[in-house]
Amino acid sequence: MKKYFQKLFIAIVAVLTLGVISPNHEIWTTLQTKDNSRETNLPTITKHDLQLGLEESIFEPDAFRQTPSIEETLFSPAKELAYLKFGSRIGPVIQQEFDTVIFPKMEEVIESTVASVGGFENGRILITQTPSGNYAEKIFHVSDTEVKKDLIRFHVRTEKRPQDGYFYNFHYHTADDNFTVHHSLGDIYWSKNTPPKWLS
Question: How many CA atoms lie within 13 A of 98 on its CB side?
């Protein structure tokens, strides 16, 4: 019975160590009984060669490097900056409508603008990291770092409409018209009460 436990133990260790500790290792010879006559006439292996890894890789070092997607490079940071601007007081009230109505339009504008300058894969298209607070309009800007200028400026303006209350007007400006024209993305109603400041 002891012999079966030894063999089971050897097999378990071999499986768990993925063969790094082999059955002909010195540990096993001390575990085996010295008076085992059946195994004395078996040939013993005296040389143990262990080779781990590949000496010549068939893969290029950059083979597994993925090109960044527009989602992770531009869309995700844009949404995070919008939420940062909304703050904890405005965000929960307008977030659902922003996600379903306004942000998909922002994605379309970003995608078409990035395509018009040749793509974002070269790392030259970035999003600014600081939305403005108080009652200022800036959410984020999409910039071309190669020419060091903004391509699109996304803003939100608080508007008071008589007898209707306060609305948030989401819009953007482009470098094509020197940032003078408001291109509307849509409005989100706040209430008749004065809204809190951004970033609050």
Answer: 22
